[in-house]
Amino acid sequence: MELRIKRVGQRGEPLPLPTYATEGSAGLDLRADEAVTLAPGERRLVPTGIAIQLPEGCEGQVRPRSGLALRHGIGMVNAPGTIDRDYTGEIGVILVNHGRESVRFERGERIAQLVVARYERVTPVEVDALDSTARGAGGFGHTGGR
Q: What's the pLDDT score for residue 137?
């Protein structure tokens, strides 16, 4: 399956296109297209310098990088972020610093992952009752702690 990628923005020399870090990786690495420093508690939209055109029936899921979370407390405010198939603008990643120190990202550093996933569209239908299940309306913590 192909993922069409267009470079956008004028922030310097072209960065490498997103790539898989290993043969078994599920996500393509997204890179910061500008240098950014995040103070503790700060969040910022970080541009990637690319736009994509997703295949029919697919969405893009932008996910945080676990190493950044563990080492620096860096996460994403809306993880995973969803890229709809019909969005063709620049991909931006909303990073947040949950750590105690400022963290600097240089242009070209890997900041997130992009997973392309298939989805199904449904037709909402109002009904008077839902089928019975063992769980029913049991909510958070309903299945117990152990």
A: 83
Q: Concatenate the DSSP letters of all residues of the chain into one string.
A: ---EEEE-S-SSSPPPPP-BSSTT-SSEEEE-SS-EEE-TT-EEEEEEEEEEEPPTTEEEEEEE-HHHHHHH-EEETTSSEEE-TT--SEEEEEEEE-SSS-EEE-TT-EEEEEEEEE---------S-----SSTT--TTTT---
Note whether 11 and 34 are within 8 A (CB). Answer: yes
Alpha-carbon gap, residue 75 to 71, rounded angstroms: 11
When mean pLDDT is compared across 9-18, 24-33, 40-49, 68-77, the lowest value belongs to 9-18
Domains and CATH numbers, the chain: 4-118 (2.70.40.10)
pTM (predicted TM-score): 0.88
Strand partners, 30: 112
Task: List pLDDT tens digits, range 42-74.
Answer: 999 999 999 999 999 999 999 999 999 999 999
